[in-house]
Amino acid sequence: MITKTKNPIIGIAFGCIFALFTVQVQAQEFSIGPKFGISQGDIRVNGEGFTTGESKLGYHLGLFARLGGNRIFLQPEILYTNTGGEIQSSQNQSQVNYAVSFNRIDTPILFGFKIANFFRIQAGPALSFLINSDVDTNTTGVPLPDYNQTTLGYQAGIGVDIANMILDLKYEGPIGKQADSIAGFPTDQRQNQLILSLGIRLF
Fold it and tell me: What is the pTM of this model?
């Protein structure tokens, strides 16, 4: 649950907005364009009788911007993302599978450093807003997870620039839990993704 006091997300958001403004004022480069790609996601679960199952192939699409100088840059993005994973349970001497799918809006803000004008390393926070979630299970009559509407994670990776194309390979990890229980049992569920995406700089 996100409370109205002592919320780290608020501090990070204000810090990113200030950094975005600072870089924009000093920017020597500005570009914007569409971005899309695929991801391999899973749900890491920690709870008695529960294990991480198969990963899920997902996708994302949206917009990115690039602001900065010859070496240091800021790359905010807004993306519609489909991801998820599988959770397996061995409660009561039987295996139950939970195939989870998330549709959400992701807003990563990446701080990066260019090497040789075409290779990049980058990392930053990623705030996600859940649109909806779906849980498909092979059993009935069990309570399903109540997933948080807002979660905070991080992204880190590398990228290359070729002409007006940007190619990014990133890992996304969680900072907080995505849910606290499944089937009525306490768990620590966290989303992970390996992300490959292509962006097209319009200018």
Answer: 0.82
